[in-house]
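# step 3/5: fold
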Amino acid sequence: MLETHSAIQKRLKSKEALIGIVGLGYVGLPLMLRYNAIGYRVLGIDIDESKVAKLNAGKSYIEHISSASIAQACNSGFEATSDFARVADCDALILCVPTPLNKYREPDMSFVIDTTDALKPYLRAGQVVSLESTTYPGTTEEELLPRIEESGLQVGQDIFLVYSPEREDPGNPDFETRTIPKVIGGHTKACLEVGIALYEQAIDRVVPVSSTKAAEMTKLLENIHRAVNIGLVNEMKVVADRMGIDIFEVVDAAATKPFGFTPYYPGPGLGGHCIPIDPFYLTWKAREYGLHTRFIELSGEVNRAMPEYVVGKLVDGLNERSKSVKGSRVLVLGISYKKNVDDMRESPSVEIMELVESMGGIVAYSDPHVETFPKMRQHHFELSSEKLSAENLATFDAVVLATDHERFDYELIRQHSNLLVDSRGKYRLPEDHIIKA
């Protein structure tokens, strides 16, 4: 007899259920730790054998997640595997896989589709499948639903399908998995009820919406809101600079208004897996409906132009000192996409490094969170992080502050840099050797 949705709800609420986390990265690992910490049995599934081996040895490969926490999870029942046949053992399957853009800046759904296809032979009645990957509205219905039902399982009766977008913010000490409200949309009412049972044990506040499409659109709106506002302030930065105005001073002053204004600060471009990518999921899908999302695309153009703007400031600074970029030694400070993390996905710092190198510059970097430049799909430098000292800083013709890690000694950098290009507004007082970018 097939397990009803009330039976699976009971298993989830009583913590008898085995939770399967598919994709053990920046989203999947914190979720695993949370379920493990509150008493669930958790199985981690990933195609990367090296990740599986490290986790089973009690080691972490993400800086802000300690190896001690992984070891503790292993001691209390967590296990990682690359064997998808183990899917059949799980009561819940939470998919946390990448959704990048391809070279045409269109959604690359291969990770979601390939993962769903890998799960498909082992799906059974009485399971709930939740997609957390950021994607365009309609993905859950158009890509997951038909694949899940191919084996004869009926979604909403035999098996349950939900979409619940991830909201991780690595390096932010003010929030953790438990305290960030969780939006959930179900394919049917029964799906939603099971989805709520899955997440309400682990998350302080669950926010149900009417459909998987509404949940998918919610995630996009969150990130598009941020991308558009950053695009606006980046454009304002260029205008303010031309007028001789410090945009950081202006934003700080505007932020004193107690209503109607939210401060966003400019930078060298957008990074991370969400903000630079997610808006294009909606612009791509909107074309199917004959719509052109001009506002969103314009902000994307502005933000993508920022690394070139920073390098332009570098060029100007070197020219004023009778130097060219070609042959100059340039140190980039911070190559992760945001401060205090080791996450380099879509980092504008890497684009700055490539632009400098393409102009003949000799590039180096310093980042206390990234000891060696990692192998990436599109970018690679055979470099290791430079140790910052008065002597070492003085050997570079220019230093570009790209990511404002708290572990940098900013006074040391200020005193011993020959030319300092500041894209983060760390240095407010004007000095001859500091250029604001």
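# step 4/5: annotate
The longest strand covers residues 18-22.
# step 5/5: archive (pending)
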